[in-house]
């Protein structure tokens, strides 16, 4: 037994005014743990995990196939003579890289850098005078 004035609520009109995401996810904007029960959360997590794994499996297989196929084609081209490797240049570059590693490990400066620094030093010391230093 209620007495008084009551206002009627038209749910159809209220639903039309709501944005689509509120219709889908509900009114509250809190964490999903508060919106869904455990079974629903497990189902959503399982489905999204399976989809992610499936996609990464396909992409990973495609990437591995492309990388392996490319390496195979390069080896085949090298074996048949389409590609020639200048092994002397490779050896020279490897030796240069080894020397750079030795220099970095020992802490000394390379000989080329030392001679260049010695060329620049007179120009730096004569900064007050008007001199022309050619490299």
From TrEMBL:
An example Gene Ontology CC term for this record: nucleus
Main location: mitochondrion
Pfam families, per database record: FUN14
InterPro entries in the cross-refs: FUN14 (IPR007014)
Compositionally biased intervals (Polar residues): 106-117
Role of this protein: Binds directly and specifically 1,2-Diacyl-sn-glycero-3-phospho-(1'-myo-inositol-3',4',5'-bisphosphate) (PIP3) leading to the recruitment of PIP3 to mitochondria and may play a role in the regulation of the platelet activation via AKT/GSK3B/cGMP signaling pathways. May act as transcription factor that regulates SREBP1 (isoform SREBP-1C) expression in order to modulate triglyceride (TG) homeostasis in hepatocytes.
Region entry Disordered, spans: 101-135
Annotated protein name in UniProt: FUN14 domain-containing protein 2
Subcellular location per the Swiss-Prot or TrEMBL entry: Mitochondrion outer membrane; Nucleus
GO BP, sorted A to Z: autophagy of mitochondrion
Membrane topology according to the record: Multi-pass membrane protein
Domain of life: Eukaryota
Bias (Basic residues): 123-135
Stored PANTHER family: FUN14 DOMAIN CONTAINING (PTHR21346), FUN14 DOMAIN-CONTAINING PROTEIN 2 (PTHR21346:SF5)
Family label: Belongs to the FUN14 family.
Organism ancestry: Eukaryota, Metazoa, Chordata, Craniata, Vertebrata
